[in-house]
């Protein structure tokens, strides 16, 4: 029976295909190695029902499970070999051993540990990061699963056991970095870098450290004046640098292995270098110098755009912002600066093109920012299996040259980072967890957290592979798991259809970002418009419009700028089209808008019915909590369907060619 709290690390007795030896021989390592041994032992107990003996001295002639260091392997990598009477898990370092142990346990749980098995794995990316948008008052910005795991009422407030369980879940999927506070650093959170709070932060760091996870702290660029009483935060002012240098030395006393700072600057009202007419390279480099003596890094967000746009002004295009701001700075950042770029040019929409800044930066380390928390994808009320779109993003080829076999897909480039052949270093993502017993509000949203970790480890994994693994680990092998896998895989397309198909973006209720409000952003300052009128919809981003298409490399620009070649799931992002534009299926754009919204609702209805068919095979609590979310999702999907269809029917006066009900 599923224990929601345990997520994909369920206690479930499995029949092993081999006899798992009852002794673990572990080489002596550090703290994380000790965790690996404990996890192996408790994992074997969880799955096979016995507690193996742990012995230090490894005699390779014996039968046993061996945890060994092997200096020939790459950092964080592992190998697993299964022979007649031995299981050998090798790694170059502690983290590698821990990942090897978890992979072994995952395979054991899925019945995949067999004689002769030999696996070698290396994480594609050295930086596999989670961002928490947790506030000191205990709320979470864009959090849909209860309060913060870390804070309450303006202070740290955490349950050690719960944090350890969280660290275990993350480490089991390969996560190795985590930022602990909201990128909007407001109120008491500014004090996080003062001694009063660092003591507690250090305790948190100690728990994550045991699982090989290093912390980042989000800082406020204005801290030198808001905390330090300097009259400026100008990055080129020596006093400002001296202030940060001293701050860093205090912070590193408490958390010597702090990974560094995460910075949201000049973004949505946060202070930044622009205030002092300095560049983002000036800002990031100043901080980078301050943390460098301690081995720290600066993760600098590229979510910099004008959020005071006049909707009347068609010449300005928010989609251009990241590239326009950061491309000219390529090469100007110090080597311990990493740019964190949202995957799309807008803001975590259900479907956006991959931002052209990716891969274009040839001299600057950068990571892709995803959003596991479902801000625009259903608030963890609606089911939306995100690896579905992450897979598309990972497969985007930034060069896309048809004349060569060579691929420049994001997933290949990330894999090449360590060889120095690319600057795309991995992923960061805003997480979806909170104090709810099942961590993620919607129990099936656990699959998104799991999927993110797996994808950062191996971006070549498909959504189907991830769904399969997660379902098997959570629900066991068999029919039930298979049906849930299908439900997961159907969920993203259904959501996209009733929400914002064809890359149209932003028809959502302002601020909350749940439910439809078709013109909610049309006359706002946020720069996210679709400009639907009686004849046409969408933004012309070709050279005859805002020219955004030209930020892409040649072949991609050629594809995106040509409406007949542009992928249809993005066509309204790049083009302003008349409603009678003929789509590839022979129907008009308008008819496609109607069709997708009807289908999106129908597919959601079917998912809910499929879930109901599982009633007798699931435990009541899980069945009912997911069912109640499907019931809310159906109300939401219906609202989207009917409001959108009515809106376009009223604009055009053209009925649905299948005569389905559109409310006048
Ligand atoms: C979105 C989101 C904000 C968040 C911001 C960010 O705009 O709605 O809540 O602060 O992204 O990524 O910084």
Query: How far apart, in Å, are the first and last alpha carbons?
Result: 48 Å
Strand arrangement across the biggest beta sheet: 7-10-11-12-13-14-15-16
Backbone shape: globular
Percentage of residues assigned to helices: 25-40%
* Ligand species: alpha-D-glucopyranuronic acid
pLDDT under 50 segments (min length 5)?
Answer: none
Structural class: alpha/beta
Main sheet makeup: 8 strands, parallel, barrel
Count of alpha/pi helices: 17
Indicate the radius of gyration in whole angstroms.
Answer: 25 Å
Please indicate the percent range of residues in DSSP E strands (runs of 2 or more): 5-15%
Q: Based on DSSP secondary structure assignment, what is the total number of beta strands?
A: 18
User: For the residues shown, what is the average pLDDT?
Assistant: 96
Write a structural description:
The protein is globular. The longest helix is centred in the C-terminal third of the chain and has 33 residues, at 620-652. Helix 12 (463-475) packs across helix 13. By secondary structure, it is an alpha/beta fold. 35% of the residues lie in helices and 12% in strands. The protein has helices at residues 31-48, 94-109, 160-173, 195-209, 223-226, 238-254, 280-291, 321-326, 387-394, 410-416, 446-457, 463-475, 479-498, 554-561, 571-574, 589-612, 620-652; strands at residues 23-26, 53-55, 64-69, 78-82, 86-91, 118-121, 127-131, 151-152, 155-156, 177-179, 214-219, 260-263, 297-301, 337-342, 366-371, 424-430, 536-537, 577-578. It has 17 helices and 18 strands. The protein has an 8-stranded parallel β-barrel, surrounded by 4 helices. The chain binds alpha-D-glucopyranuronic acid.
């Amino acid at each position: 029976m599923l224990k929601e709290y345990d997520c994909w690390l369920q206690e479930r007795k499995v029949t092993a295909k081999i006899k798992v030896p009852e002794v673990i021989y572990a080489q002596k390592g550090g703290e994380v190695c000790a965790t690996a041994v404990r996890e192996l032992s408790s994992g074997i107990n969880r799955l096979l029902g016995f507690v193996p003996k742990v012995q230090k001295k490894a005699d390779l002639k014996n039968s046993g499970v061996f945890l060994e260091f092997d200096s020939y392997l790459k950092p964080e990598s592992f190998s697993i070999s299964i022979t007649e009477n031995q299981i050998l898990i090798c790694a170059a370092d502690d983290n590698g051993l821990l990942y090897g142990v978890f992979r072994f346990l995952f395979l054991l749980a899925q019945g995949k540990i067999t004689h002769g098995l030999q696996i070698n794995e290396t994480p594609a990316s050295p930086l596999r990061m989670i961002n928490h948008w947790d506030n000191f008052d205990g709320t979470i910005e864009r959090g849909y699963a209860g309060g913060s795991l870390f804070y309450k009422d303006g202070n740290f407030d955490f349950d050690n056991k719960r944090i350890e369980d969280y660290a275990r879940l993350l480490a089991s999927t390969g996560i190795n970095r985590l930022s602990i506070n909201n990128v909007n650093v407001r109120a008491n959170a500014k004090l996080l870098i003062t001694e009063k709070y660092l003591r507690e932060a250090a305790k948190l760091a100690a728990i994550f450290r045991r699982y090989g996870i290093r912390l980042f702290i989000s800082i406020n660029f204005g801290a030198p004046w808001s905390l330090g009483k300097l009259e400026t935060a100008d990055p080129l002012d020596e006093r400002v640098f001296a202030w940060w240098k001293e701050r860093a030395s205090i912070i590193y006393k408490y958390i010597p292995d702090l990974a560094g700072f995460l910075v949201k600057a000049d973004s949505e009202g946060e202070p930044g270098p622009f205030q002092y007419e300095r560049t983002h390279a000036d800002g990031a480099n100043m901080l980078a110098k301050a943390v460098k003596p301690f081995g720290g890094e600066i993760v600098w967000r590229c979510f910099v755009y004008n959020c005071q746009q006049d909707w009347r002004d068609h010449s300005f295009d928010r989609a251009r912002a990241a590239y326009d701001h950061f491309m000219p700075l390529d090469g100007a950042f110090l080597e311990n600066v990493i740019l964190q770029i949202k995957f799309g040019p807008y803001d975590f929409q259900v479907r956006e093109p991959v931002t052209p800044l990716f891969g274009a930066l040839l001299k600057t380390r950068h990571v892709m920012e995803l959003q596991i928390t479902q801000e625009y994808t259903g608030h963890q009320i609606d089911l939306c299996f995100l690896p579905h779109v992450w897979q598309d993003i990972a497969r985007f080829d930034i060069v896309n040259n048809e004349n060569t076999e060579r691929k420049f897909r994001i997933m290949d480039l990330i894999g090449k980072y360590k060889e120095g052949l690319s600057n795309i270093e991995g992923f960061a993502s805003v997480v979806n967890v909170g104090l709810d017993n099942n961590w993620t509000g919607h129990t099936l949203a656990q699959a998104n957290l799991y999927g993110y970790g797996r994808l950062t480890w191996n971006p070549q994994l498909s959504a189907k592979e991830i769904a399969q693994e997660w379902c098997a680990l959570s629900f066991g092998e068999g029919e039930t798991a298979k049906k849930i896998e299908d439900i997961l895989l159907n969920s993203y397309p259904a959501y996209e259809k009733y929400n914002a198909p064809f890359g149209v973006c932003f028809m959502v209720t302002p601020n909350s970002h749940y439910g439809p409000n078709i013109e909610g952003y049309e006359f706002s300052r946020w720069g996210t418009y679709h400009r639907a009128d009686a004849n046409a919809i969408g933004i012309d981003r070709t050279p005859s419009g805002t020219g955004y298409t030209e930020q892409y490399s040649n072949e991609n620009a050629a594809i995106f700028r040509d409406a007949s070649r542009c992928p249809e799931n993005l066509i309204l992002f790049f083009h302003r089209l008349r409603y009678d534009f003929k789509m590839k299926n022979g129907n008009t754009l308008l008819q496609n808008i109607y069709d997708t919204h009807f289908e999106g609702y129908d597919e959601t209805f079917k998912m809910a019915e499929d879930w109901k068919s599982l009633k007798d095979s699931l435990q009541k609590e899980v069945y009912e909590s997911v069912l109640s979310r499907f019931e809310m999702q159906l109300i939401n999907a219906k609202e989207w369907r009917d409001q959108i269809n009515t809106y376009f029917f009223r604009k055009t006066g053209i009925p649905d060619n299948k005569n389905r009900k559109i409310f006048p």
